[in-house]
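Hi everyone, sorry if this is the wrong subforum. Our group has a chain we'd like a structural model of before ordering constructs, and none of us has done structure prediction before. Sequence below.
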Amino acid sequence: MFVDRVRIHAKAGDGGDGSASFRREKFIPKGGPDGGDGGDGGDVILRADTHTDQLANLFFEPILKAKPGGRGSFRQRHGKSAPDLVIPVPIGTLIYRFPEPEPLDPFAEPTEEEPSEQPRKKGKLPDPKAEDLVADLDELGKEFIICHGGKGGLGNIHFKSSRNRAPRRFTEGTPGEEGWFLLEMRSIAFAGLVGYPNAGKSTLLRAISRAHPKVGSYAFTTRHPQVGVVDLEDYKKTTVADIPGLIEGAHENRGLGHQFLRHVMRCAYLLMVLDMGGTEARDPLDDLKALRKELELYNPELAARPWCIVANKMDMPEAAANLKRCKRKHKGITIVPVCAELGEGIPELKAFLQEKVEEQEAETVAAKKALTTQSGNGETTTVDGFTY
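Answer:
Right subforum, don't worry. Here is the predicted structure as tokens:
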């Protein structure tokens, strides 16, 4: 079961209460106050972990509760602070604040719904709002405290004075924070394979990387995104994500379109995989037009990203003629003909990916140099999470 969106409830630990105690020992029958402070409650922390690839663990255990702090004791013994509750999540997880669900009224009268011929829809979590985003765990080891633990209370030793030699006053620990959150995973990869179902994306990912996605001769073989590591020359590596097949109306969430399209948002480069042989009785040029339209309707930013065409299934008889038509229509777009099943054109595709990776690295270095120059002039700018 693949889970990339889950709703959780987090509760940090409460602070421990302070102690109202007095020193009582042999030959010291009336000692002063010696009550200790309470311990702090544990925080609830989400940490990006490379060994976690989905949110299934939180789907079955959506309630996160940290331990409370210990109470203070006599002889100025402070309560033990509770450990933090650290939950690993996939790299690329977005954290949104989620409204608290309305409690169910057991005494409410049931409402009679009119019968409908349409099938009953499954309950899905609503799409979060952009202003509710609180954190983006897009780097390995990045952490975010979603709920802070409560502070421990003070013992009566803090309230003694020259006028009040035996204070009985102490303070209770503060309660820990709690709230509802929506976690949404988005795959992080340099390039994303976008195409219609059964276009050969999973076979292509097997050919260029170490990933082993499921491959079948039927549509929607891939049900969830998979990321593969591609080995390049000069000991360089990059990542490519296999996005499940899109259909017309994906921007309207038809065919689980939103669940698939949001994983493309992390990809800096798009590889439009086309069935150039037309094995599904479709025109590859029409497929490309429909895919570009779906990306633009879902988010105009996706349509503006750099992309190229990967002409797959070039071993089919109709592939050569379709490739010529595609080159005439898209003269300024790079087209890489491959046959993923036979391994043809894979070295050329890897060389093209390495060229794009090196271009991105050069642009990043140039941008950081420019920011360093600006910071030397007294200007500060933040890029990629770093302030210059």
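For your construct planning: Confidence is low (pLDDT under 50) at residues 382-388. The chain has seven helices and 16 strands.
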